[in-house]
User: Which sequence fits this backbone?
């Protein structure tokens, strides 16, 4: 689970670095060209904030689903063990 969390965090950091670098690169390019100054998007900062919030929400949902899946897998294992106890089957009962 810790490896998955570290992998997810690494992916989010890389994504944030790429997304954060894109507006900087386009802003630097806009200074050299008059045409790109005319096509600037008003509210670009707000748009980037919305994208970041959206990706944080998606990441949170994925994390929630991963935690819930782990809890359900543990419940299933516990119930299978309890069923084996009640029915009196063990490893020899598995086919």
Assistant:
């Amino acid at each position: 689970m810790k490896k998955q969390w570290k992998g997810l965090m690494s992916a989010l950091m890389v994504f944030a670095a790429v997304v954060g670098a894109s507006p900087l690169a386009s802003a630097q390019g806009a200074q050299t060209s008059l045409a790109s100054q005319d096509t600037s998007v008003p509210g670009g900062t707000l748009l980037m904030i919305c994208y970041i919030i959206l990706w944080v929400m998606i990441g949170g949902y994925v994390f929630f689903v991963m935690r819930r899946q782990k809890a359900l897998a543990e419940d299933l294992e516990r119930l299978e063990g309890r069923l084996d106890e009640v029915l009196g089957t063990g490893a020899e009962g598995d086919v």
About this structure: The chain has a mean pLDDT of 77. Residues 2-87 form one domain. The two ends are 30 Å apart (CA to CA).
